[in-house]
Structures are given as structure tokens and as C-alpha cells.
Design goal:
The chain is of the alpha/beta class. It contains 19 helices and 21 strands. The protein has helices at about 20-30, 45-50, 85-110, 120-125, 135-140, 150-155, 170-180, 200-210, 225-235, 270-285, 310-325, 335-345, 380-390, 410-415, 450-465, 485-500, 515-520, 530-535, 550-555, and strands at about 5-10, 30-35, 60-70, 70-80, 185-190, 215-220, 240-245, 295, 325-330, 355, 360-365, 370-375, 395-400, 405, 425, 440-445, 470, 475-480, 505-510, 525, 540. A hairpin with a 2-residue loop joins β3 (about 60-70) and β4 (about 70-80). The radius of gyration is 27 Å and the shape is elongated. The chain starts with a strand and ends with a helix.
């Protein structure tokens, strides 16, 4: 019976065999096919395919994506990828850029701990490789800083070591989507290695299946028979194909060989035949694997440029995005009437649109004009915030259903109204909201951010007791709203109302009040012009800012 190995690494990531050497070794081991699945790179595939030409073996183009889920490193394998497509290569560029930034910082930390190393020296020592921590360990060993690879991890580059820098990773759900869009078969790699409870692993697999997972690695070098049976049962429960691999790395994993693992591994060709059958089905019926998405986008600094408009390219991408069946939600700290005015003056007339105002305090369905959800501060809470702002000499205003409510006409209000055209009612007692409360308050200090920070410090204990959140939408504006509100809560609420999985949501923003939304979505996008905290919360960062269609250029790959 023919055998295969669908999980193999070369020197292009952290293996010790070149792609050409892998081909020869695979033939020696009697394989009919193997998949080259280097970490986050396809750089070795052309060499392997060329080396296999005219020989009795098939090289399957693959990849192993590193992703993050609930604080754990989760790997997703892709097989039969269209790895030369423009889309896929753009995604890999993002991975490479993230790795370079992380590796430069790790080199800096190693220097601080007495290691004479630069990023350029590291790359030159391992030419053509995707640098991983294994390369750092080898460098430290070969240059005499440690006596073993284990010591290198323990002292310098292990998870809890001082020179380790975690790399920003995509979610496993996003990895599945990327592989599907590149025409490949997404497979959850070695699930037993994640040491999850049965319930947590089941939840992960269910979530991945929802976005299109096709297979699961049920045959693996380190599995005990009972573990293989467990994963096979999981595959049957979620109608997933079985995959298998040795996870061969050469000398990097002593004693583990191609095809046979630690001596007991056996992956029949039937496993590959079933995957190929599924792949043919995917090609014949791509619509069955398409998942519509919902985009929650902030306005100022994200969707809008500095002229409060959108560029022609952004409009073109949004036309394509919505025509493909995806939904658009404008989500802002602005009052709901101002959000509605943006929709109107931009002539955004897409079906199934929604508006979210007041940092998540109100959700409106555009097709009907109906408010689907509203949460507000009480009248007493609003009055307390107004008095505190007055004591600090800061501008305060709040909102009724139709108007801005401001105690006075001042410079800060005029500054605010340069962008927000909602009409104003000057109201000392705020009786307009006595019965229904207000979705949010805004405190403004132009070019006096430290005074806003002092206000936050003074009010923080009361706000925490009252379950009220205070966040900055920019250096001049402090947004105050119920803690049960927030953009993240609005993402979850609207997905619930529409029966859409949050895993299929996208959220984009640039400011502190966007963080909860970015964290709640399946894909969180930070703008190039976003603050560092926002970028840290996101799964991806745009290459261009809001004045150069940055969001649209990322969305193109999500259509």
C-alpha cells in the first residue's frame, strides 16, 4: 500500500533538509506524495516541485500558518494552495513584515543581555530561511553563548525568557479563510498538542468549521492510539476529512523521521485520495464554501479621510464588498443623527446597512429606520458628569434623540460643530432627557489633554461604581457612556440580532474607543494612523492611512 506524509518542513522555515533533499529522502522512504508545509512561507515549493519532476513522487504545495486563539498557539495547515496568486502573496508579505519587526526587537533584547547579534547577522547565518526561535537557539549554540538548544530556550528565547517577543498573529479562523480563498484545503494541525480540555477543543473545532475548516490532523507522530481515536471521533462529529503528517524537521527533531515519525506512524494514500476528492468538490461548488461577512467601521480617522469624504477607490471596494452579499455598519462615537448624515451625504445606499452611534449606545436599521437597540446613562448620572466637568472648567454636552444638549455656547462647542452638524439646544437643566436618559456624554478640552486626564482620575471611582466607561476618541474628546454599551458590545449585539457569528465580523478603527470593537470582531483592523494600543489589539494593520484608502485596500482581500 502506498503511503503519504502531509506535514513536512524544510530549511525554508525551521527544518534541516533543503526542499530538494526532502524529495530524495521521501523517495527513499517509499512515499507516493508529501506536502511541504513550511511555517508561514511557500519559498521552498518551486524547488521541491522541480526536484520531483519526472520522479515517482508528488509534491503538494502547502503551508503551516501560526495563529493565536485564547492565548494559545494554534497551527493551520493549507494543502494544494494557489501559492503564486496575488492575493496569497500579499498575505505572506504581511506575515513577513510582522516577523521582521519581531525579530529586530528580539535581537535588541539579546544585545541587552550580552549577546553580540544583529538582525542582519542572524539572517546572513541562515540565508533563505524564515527566522524562528529555533534559529536563535542555533545561533546562540554555535557562537558559544549556551551549551545546548534547551539552554538557549530556557535562558533567552523561550516563552517565559527575557528576550522572547510574541509575534502578532492572525486568528485560526482567519488562517482558514486565507487558505480557502487561495483555493487550498484548510486543516487543523496536531490538535492534541494544544493540551485543551475536550470542551475547549470542541469549541475551537466548531468555530473553525463555521468559517470553512475542511480537515483535521488525526494521524500524527506523537499520538497515542487513544488520542488518534479521539480526533477521529471529532472529525466524524463535524464532518471533517482526516489528514496526517509526521511534522518532520530533520535534525531539529531528533529521532522523528519522514513518513514513519517515531517508528509507528503510517498514513495510507487513502487519506490523500479523500482530501483530493473534497478538493475537487470545493472547486466545483465554491459557493458552498463562501461565508458572507459584516463590516463594522469607525468613521473619523478610519472610513473617512481628512475631508470627511471617501475616495473613489474606497467607494469601488465598498460596492464590490456589498454586492458580494456582505453587510456594512457605520459605527461611531458620534450621535446617531450625525452618523445618519454621513450615510446620506456620502450616498451610501447599500441594502441591509446599519448605523451605530454613541459608541454603541444605539443601533438603527437603515432599511426601516427602526431602532433595534438602545442603552443610556440615567438623568442623574448625566447631571453628575455635567457638574464634575463644570468644576474642572471643561466643556460638557450630551444628546437627546434629535439634538445636542449643551449648557452653554463656547469655543469647544463651535470646534465640535465644525464636523458634527447636529442642531444644538442650550439647556441648563437637561429636562429633555429626564425620562429617557442619554446614550453618552462628551467632555472636550482643546489642546489640554492633561486636564481631561485629571478629570478622568477624579471621576474614575464614581464611574467604576456606576458602571460607566470613559475613553478618548482623540486627544480633545473624552467619551462617557454605560459600560454595558461600547462598540464591542454593539458588535456582539447586532451579530446576535442578525444571527451572524462574530467570527464572520470585521471591525476597523483608529482610536481608543475602537479597541473593544476590534477585539470583539473575528478580524480586527487597525489603521496605519491608529494609536499603538489600537494596533496591539488588532489582528492586522493597514499599510496606508485613512487619507489613502488604507481600509479599502485591506478589505479587497476579504471580499
Amino acid at each position: 500500500m502506498n503511503i503519504v506524509d502531509l506535514h513536512v518542513h524544510s530549511t525554508k522555515s525551521d527544518g534541516s533538509y533543503t526542499p530538494s533533499e526532502l524529495v530524495e529522502h521521501a523517495i527513499e522512504k517509499g512515499l507516493s506524495a508529501f506536502a511541504l508545509t513550511d511555517h508561514d512561507t511557500t519559498a521552498g515549493i518551486d524547488e521541491a516541485i522541480a526536484a520531483a519532476a519526472g520522479k515517482p513522487i508528488e509534491v503538494i504545495p502547502g503551508i503551516e500558518f501560526s495563529s493565536e486563539y485564547e492565548g494559545r498557539d494554534i497551527h493551520i495547515i493549507g494543502l494544494y494552495l494557489d501559492y503564486k496568486s496575488d492575493f496569497f502573496q500579499r498575505r505572506l508579505v504581511n506575515f513577513v513584515n510582522g516577523r521582521i519587526m519581531r525579530n529586530q526587537e528580539m535581537c535588541r533584547r539579546l544585545q541587552e543581555h550580552g549577546v553580540a547579534i544583529t538582525y542582519e547577522e542572524l539572517v546572513s547565518e541562515f540565508p533563505g530561511s524564515v527566522i524562528t526561535r529555533a534559529h536563535y537557539a542555533r545561533y546562540l549554540l554555535s557562537h558559544g553563548y549556551v551549551k545546548s538548544l534547551k539552554e538557549a530556550f530556557d535562558r533567552y528565547v523561550g516563552d517565559n525568557a527575557p528576550c522572547f517577543v510574541p509575534r502578532k498573529k492572525i486568528t485560526p479562523m482567519r488562517a482558514v479563510e486565507i487558505i480557502l480563498k487561495a483555493g487550498g484545503i484548510p486543516i487543523l494541525a496536531h490538535p492534541i498538542l494544544y493540551h485543551m480540555s475536550s470542551a475547549r477543543l470542541d469549541k475551537l473545532v466548531a468555530s473553525l468549521k463555521e468559517v470553512g475548516l475542511i480537515g483535521i490532523e488525526a494521524i500524527y507522530s506523537t499520538y497515542a492510539p487513544s488520542e488518534e481515536r479521539e480526533i477521529r471521533r471529532l472529525a466524524e462529529r463535524y464532518d471533517l476529512c482526516i489528514s496526517g503528517g509526521s511534522d518532520f524537521h530533520g535534525s531539529a527533531k531528533p529521532g522523528l523521521d519522514l513518513a514513519t515519525g517515531y517508528g509507528r506512524l503510517f498514513i495510507p494514500e487513502e487519506v490523500l485520495v479523500n482530501l483530493k476528492r473534497k478538493h475537487a468538490e470545493m472547486k466545483a461548488h465554491p459557493e458552498a464554501f463562501h461565508r458572507n461577512k459584516i463590516l463594522f467601521t469607525d468613521l473619523d480617522g478610519t472610513f473617512l479621510n481628512k475631508e470627511k469624504q471617501i475616495g473613489d477607490y474606497t467607494r469601488e471596494v465598498m460596492d464590490t464588498f456589498t454586492k458580494a452579499g456582505n453587510k456594512l455598519v457605520l459605527c461611531s462615537g458620534r450621535d446617531i443623527n450625525s452618523v445618519r448624515s454621513v450615510k446620506e451625504y456620502l450616498h451610501l445606499d447599500y441594502p441591509g446597512m446599519y448605523l451605530i452611534g454613541y459608541n454603541g449606545g444605539q443601533i438603527v436599521e437603515c432599511d426601516t429606520g427602526k431602532t433595534l437597540y438602545r442603552i443610556a446613562l440615567t438623568y442623574e448620572q448625566v447631571c453628575h458628569i455635567r457638574e464634575a466637568a463644570s468644576q474642572h472648567g471643561l466643556h460638557f454636552h450630551t444628546y437627546s434623540d434629535t439634538n445636542i444638549l449643551s449648557p452653554c455656547d463656547d469655543e469647544e462647542l463651535h470646534f465640535y460643530q465644525r464636523t458634527i452638524k447636529t442642531p444644538v439646544i442650550f439647556s441648563q437643566d437637561l429636562h429633555e432627557i429626564r425620562d429617557c436618559g442619554a446614550c453618552k456624554c462628551l467632555v472636550i478640552a482643546i489642546d489640554r489633554h492633561e486636564e481631561l486626564e485629571a478629570f478622568v482620575r477624579d471621576l474614575s471611582s464614581w464611574a467604576e461604581q456606576e458602571q460607566i466607561t470613559m475613553v478618548f476618541s482623540n486627544n480633545n474628546y473624552l467619551e462617557i457612556f454605560p459600560s454595558a454599551s461600547g462598540k464591542g458590545a454593539a458588535v456582539r449585539k447586532l451579530c446576535e440580532l442578525l444571527n451572524i457569528s462574530p467570527l464572520l465580523s470585521i471591525a476597523a478603527g483608529d482610536a481608543e474607543n475602537d479597541i473593544s470593537m476590534i477585539e470583539a470582531a473575528g478580524i480586527g483592523i487597525a489603521m496605519y494612523n491608529a494609536s499603538d494600543d489600537v494596533k496591539a489589539a488588532a489582528t492586522m494593520v493597514t499599510a496606508l492611512d485613512n487619507n489613502h484608502d488604507g481600509l479599502a485596500r485591506e478589505l479587497l482581500d476579504l471580499v
